[in-house]
Structure formats: structure tokens, C-alpha cells
Design goal:
Length: about 280
């Protein structure tokens, strides 16, 4: 589950344990601003110690980039700020002992896919050169919103395989985004076919984390709106296949589902365990 760090960073571990999680995701800072408070030695120590005693595998912990950075931006100032944010996040993850950082691929703002991809490759390559090699950057497939890059598996592959060193990069596969961009996940047959397409172009071995989310929007809607597991347009059958598939490959599953009067985090975790 994506868990809160409200109060202090180490509370994330407590929150994950309260939910009965064996994997969790966090923001390492306020995701809605550019500025990040430096991590104190106490915060780092407390987080690392709690993680060790929690028995949650370190390789089932992941951080997510904040919302504002746009690593595909054609504009110099936003691009520079976004790159600095990526480098800073990688350094924060390294201090906390978190091995994965999920990154949104951003928007080319109308400059075209090619320009966006060039900026992305520049971002990730520069970040890899300026950080230690203990944190892997995970490219998250997009929902295919206007001017976005990386929703199509073939295009995602073309980005991933341009990045060096290869061992610094992997993929976070989001089920809602894949479905919203036109990949069918509603039945066992179509979910299997979609994962086979991913394997053909990218390779299943590159999936390090699965974001398991149902979709409020219909297939191919290009709208990134997450829904409770089984209550959206993907439904239980296809998501059950993805859960079993991820489990068989030992890929950690993270939920980024809503909380409302229909269901909370406990309810969504319970549902996924039923599907498993």
C-alpha cells in the first residue's frame, strides 16, 4: 500500500504494519511542493531500524517522485528543477535504504514525442551519473494523456533501452494506466495477452514493482483515475490474474487505491488477498 509519512518518516513503517503490508510505497517529502526538508540523521536511523525490525523485505519498499517535476519538459527552467528533484530523491532514497524510485515520465507539452523522449533520456542519464548506484529508477507506464510519453509498451521499451547503465533502470507497471491507454486486462485471456505484449517489447524481468489499481475510466479513455480493486472497469477477474502473475514472479504489489465511504485501505488489501 502507498502509506503516509505524516508525523515522521518512520511512521510509514508503522502504518504499513498496521495495514498488514508486506510491501509499501512512500513519498519521502511533501509531494506537492518543490522544496524538501533535509533528512536528519535521527529520521534516517529511525526509519532504517524500524524497517529491519518490521521483517518487511527492503526490496519491497519503494519511493515515488513528487507530483511537480516534469522530466520531459521542453522548457529549460522546469526541466532543470525537475532534474534536480530527481537527483535529490535518489539521494534521499539512498540514505533511507530504499532501493527503488518510481518516476512519472512527464509531458512534452506539445513539442512532440521525440523531443520528450530526448529530454527524458537526458534526465535519467544525468541522474544516474550524479548519484550512487544503490537506487534503481523505475519508469512508470502512463495512461496516455495528451502530450504524455511512455503509455505504449513499444515506446516505453525504446526509452528504457536507451538508458545507461542498464542496471540502474527498471519498470513500474501500473494496471490502471495500462488499461486507460488501451491494454485490456478485464479477463484472464486479455490480461495474459497484455502481459505477453509487455514481455515481447520490454521483458517481464524489467518489472520491479506492480501498481495494482482498478480504473474509473473505460479502456482506452486516457484518464488516470484509480478505483477500488474490483469496483472499476477492469474488475476482479483480470486483476486476480495480475496478482497471481506478480506473485509467481515475486514482484511486490503496491496499491494506490482511493479511501472513501465504500472502502478503505484495509478493504482493498483484503480484496487483493481474496483474489490471490
Amino acid at each position: 500500500m502507498h502509506v503516509s509519512i505524516a508525523g515522521s518518516m518512520d511512521k510509514a513503517v508503522d502504518n504499513a504494519l498496521t495495514l498488514g503490508c508486506s510491501a509499501f510505497q512512500i513519498f519521502t517529502r511533501n509531494p506537492r511542493g518543490w522544496k524538501a526538508k533535509p533528512l536528519s540523521n535521527d529520521v534516517i536511523t529511525n526509519f532504517r531500524e524500524k524497517l529491519v525490525t518490521s521483517k518487511i523485505d527492503r526490496f519491497a519498499t519503494v519511493a515515488h517522485m513528487p507530483y511537480l517535476p516534469n522530466l520531459s519538459s521542453p522548457e529549460e527552467d522546469p526541466f532543470s528543477k525537475s532534474l534536480n528533484s530527481l537527483v535529490d530523491e535518489l539521494k534521499r532514497c539512498s540514505k533511507l535504504g530504499i532501493p527503488y524510485l518510481v518516476a512519472h515520465l512527464g509531458s512534452h507539452k506539445g513539442a512532440g514525442d521525440q523531443k520528450g523522449i530526448e529530454k527524458l533520456v537526458k534526465s535519467f542519464t544525468n541522474a544516474a551519473e550524479n548519484t550512487s548506484n544503490d537506487v534503481m529508477m523505475l519508469l512508470e507506464n502512463t495512461a496516455g494523456q495528451k502530450n504524455s510519453v511512455g503509455s505504449d509498451f513499444e515506446q516505453l521499451a525504446s526509452i528504457l533501452f536507451k538508458l545507461k547503465p542498464a542496471k540502474r533502470f527498471g519498470v513500474c507497471l501500473d494496471t490502471c494506466h495500462a488499461f486507460a491507454s488501451g491494454y485490456d486486462l478485464r479477463t484472464e485471456k486479455t490480461a495474459k495477452s497484455t502481459l505477453e505484449q509487455f514481455d515481447k517489447f520490454i521483458g517481464i524481468e524489467h518489472i520491479k514493482i506492480v501498481h495494482l489499481n482498478d480504473s474509473k475510466g473505460e479502456i482506452g479513455c486516457n484518464i488516470d483515475r484509480h478505483e477500488h480493486i474490483g469496483l472499476g472497469k477492469i474488475g476482479e477477474i483480470g486483476l486476480s490474474y495480475v496478482v497471481k502473475f506478480a506473485y509467481s514472479k515475486k514482484i511486490p504489489i503496491i496499491l494506490e487505491t482511493p479511501i472513501d465511504d465504500r472502502r478503505d485501505d484495509f478493504g482493498n488489501i483484503k480484496k487483493v488477498k481474496e483474489l490471490a
